[in-house]
Design goal:
mainly alpha
Length: 421
């Protein structure tokens, strides 16, 4: 906020509305962890009953999840369509059947509530454990609150994927490479997205130990489902998983050109580009340069030691998961918005007005762009047809890359400490 405007308001004996708003949101109520905890629990319970119904049967995603466990027990395909049980089909790895098992055996509504509360608790605890100051963590919680609600309404496991990447980094910071490798493996063996956290290995001196733990955890997760089924069956399911992902990608690519489709997938830079231009070309023309841009900051070996630079990698990974995946959907933006929030609060310098604008732009368009709070003429006329949810996240990601490629984190311009050393 411009201090000159505040001074002008005071000099004219007027009450500055911007200052009043700022003072209101600085009240202890809004910066209390308990406020966020209660709010998140309430939103989670609201999502459970409004989307799942009183018996929990109406939330399709949870029906898919819980039946993965029973299909594994019955040696059925985990990836076929079962229209008598649910719509769509499973896209998670065979190991996911063990993660969902405790919730699948509960009465359906109890299992749904327990599942959603577990995801909420995981994200809440992950943010609390971040080695950032309290103000930064409170900002992160408020920024992702709407996306948490969206994810809960769809029972989305993407909440866990977002948390796993952060947990992997926190474990690296604590020199617990075995735990870090575990979180990377969990994200990889359930939805593949977790593999983007693998570059965190560069921030530990125990690279070979990390690699060894990662291979071990991957092997354990590969084998574990076999204990309640059979090796032949599980190996066959991994083959089906690979083919299902390829088929799903082909469907999402085709949908990426349709500005009138109700099948709202590929909400990424890929989908946005195709929908705006209506040009047919290989996504590799985007993915190739994007991969190079993601890797570009890693040539700055001298910056690896600085925590703010490391946080930049974590934020970049979160945004890339959504920006460059044809499977990106609205309820998956909890991953991207967590990355946006980390970008904003982890810089060791005072954020500029332009940075604040980017943050607000991301909240308004990427987070609330497809909600009922957005005017229908904007939502249905521009944001949905052209996948514009991806636009502000892309701008933040490019700004982050510029910072990571140009700023000397040893002596950044204007100083402000927003992280613990």
């Amino acid at each position: 906020m411009n201090k000159d405007n505040v001074t002008s308001c005071q000099a004219n004996g007027k009450k500055c509305p911007l200052k009043s708003v700022g003072d209101f949101f600085r009240k202890p109520f809004f910066s209390d962890y308990r406020t966020l905890a209660v709010l998140w629990v309430i939103l989670t319970l609201v999502a459970a009953f409004t989307k799942g119904g009183l018996d929990g049967t109406k939330l399709n995603n949870f029906s898919i999840y819980r039946m993965v466990f029973y299909h594994l027990l019955d040696f059925k395909s985990l990836y076929l369509y079962y229209p008598e049980e649910y719509h769509d089909h499973n896209l998670y790895g065979p190991f996911f059947s063990l993660i969902i098992a405790p919730y699948a055996v509960m009465p359906r509504i109890v299992g749904l509530i327990a599942w959603l509360l577990s995801l909420t608790a995981l994200m809440y605890a992950t943010i609390l454990k971040m080695p950032l100051d309290k103000g930064a963590k409170i900002v992160i919680m408020w920024v992702v609150t709407n996306e948490m609600m969206s994810a809960m309404q769809m029972a989305q496991f993407n909440v866990a994927i977002a948390a796993f990447v952060v947990c992997a980094y926190i474990s690296i910071r604590k020199d617990r490479v075995g735990w870090s490798a575990l979180f990377v493996a969990l994200g990889t063996m359930t939805k593949l997205y977790g593999i983007v956290a693998l570059p965190l290995i560069l921030f530990t001196k125990k690279k070979w130990k990390f690699a060894g733990w990662f291979v071990l955890w991957m092997a354990v997760m590969f084998v574990l489902p076999m204990f309640i089924s059979s090796p032949e069956y599980v190996i066959g399911q991994y083959r089906e998983w690979a083919l299902t992902i390829i088929d799903k990608n082909d469907i999402n690519v085709a949908v990426g050109f349709n500005t009138a489709s109700n099948y709202y997938q590929n909400i990424s830079v890929l989908g946005m580009t195709h929908r705006i231009t209506q040009l047919e070309f290989s996504d590799l023309w985007i993915l190739g340069p994007a991969c190079l841009l993601f890797l570009l900051p890693f040539v700055r070996f001298s910056q690896y030691r600085y925590h703010a630079f490391q946080w930049g990698v974590v934020a970049s990974a979160h945004m890339c998961i959504i920006l460059f995946s044809t499977g990106s959907e609205s309820s998956g933006y909890i991953i991207a918005m967590l990355g946006v929030a980390i970008w904003y609060v982890s810089a060791p310098w005072q954020r500029s007005g332009w940075d604040l604008f980017l943050l607000i732009f991301a909240i308004v368009i990427a987070s609330f762009g497809t909600s009922d709070l957005m005017p229908s003429v904007i939502k249905r006329g521009f944001i949905r047809p052209y996948s514009l949810k991806a636009l502000p996240v892309l701008l933040v990601w490019l700004k982050l890359l510029w910072e990571m490629c140009t700023v000397n984190y040893a002596n950044p311009y204007p100083t402000r400490s927003s992280q613990k050393s």
